[in-house]
Amino acid sequence: MPPGPAPAQRVRTHLTAPDGRRLSYLTFGPVKGSPLLALHGHLGEGADFAELADALGPHGWRVIAPDQRGHGDSDRAERYDRDGYLSDLRLLLTHIGLDQHALPVLGHSLGAINGYHLAAGQPGAVSALINIDGPAYLPPVAPAPLSFLLDVPYTASTREELLAACGPLAPLLEGGMRPQRDGWRLGSHPRDMVDSDTRVLGDHWHQWLGTDCPALLLHGTASTVLPTAQAHEMASRRPGTTLVELDADHWVHLRRPEESAATVRRFLDTWS
């Protein structure tokens, strides 16, 4: 069997927001490759797209994957509404010199919603959308779906202690754990995630339908976040949208990485 593609080169860079927060992002793939902005979901980070970047790099794509505010190596923020997330994305695009160029934007869940909000607010900034299981409507419920995180500590003296404190949530949270000066921490603060989750609930149909650039909607048929009926409605109501369904839960790109990467690559090849 011939060897697979070499892992995409990974470079981590930091920039400083006007309020002093550190924003961190990863770039994968060829330096002169075509840029693709990739936005993770709640509890995620830019490194979630490493496998996708490995698949796209040999085809000339450079994946730019920020740790969105309050996630990964990016500092916590005072608020987690759309304006806050989008201001960070605009700052990043200016920092890397892509604020005057349209580029494709890929996002998972929260990242997908932020991506199509960015497109709706600045249509000339986004040439194509790749939405991985990001709904156009999330029922406003109380408490927010991620409220179960409030029972988990943010820090502990050792990684083992933090893992034990996470209990059955350990498989969900252990990938983002990080060492710090006096012990270990989660990849994101539970209170921040509940705040962010609360603020993303509601109706986003106007923004989803607010652009006409080509779009791919990659849906996991076992998802508990994006109902299949809504995924079909999102594709049928938005012109130029291709719906692809895979047998997976909400984390489609992590559960079915090869099929997801092949689907994304075909979509990018079609319009680019």
Concise summary:
The two termini are 30 Å apart.
Keywords:
24% strand; 3-stranded antiparallel beta sheet; 272 residues; 10 helices; alpha/beta; Rossmann fold; 33% helix; 13 strands
Using the coordinates shown, work out and report the CATH topology.
Answer: Rossmann fold
The number of E-state strands comes to: 13
Order of helices and strands: EEEHEHEHEEEHHEEHEHEHEHH
Q: Looking across the biggest beta sheet, what order are the strands in?
A: 1-2-4-3-5-6-12-13
Mind telling me the CATH class? Answer: Alpha Beta
| Average pLDDT over all residues | 95
Describe the largest sheet: 8 strands, mixed
User: Number of helical segments?
Assistant: 10
Q: Tell me, briefly, the overall form.
A: globular
Q: How many angstroms separate the termini?
A: 30 Å
Content of β-strand: 15-25%
- Low-confidence parts: none
Spatial extent as radius of gyration: 18 Å
What CATH architecture would you give?
3-Layer(aba) Sandwich
Could you say which structural class the secondary elements and strand pairing correspond to?
A: alpha/beta
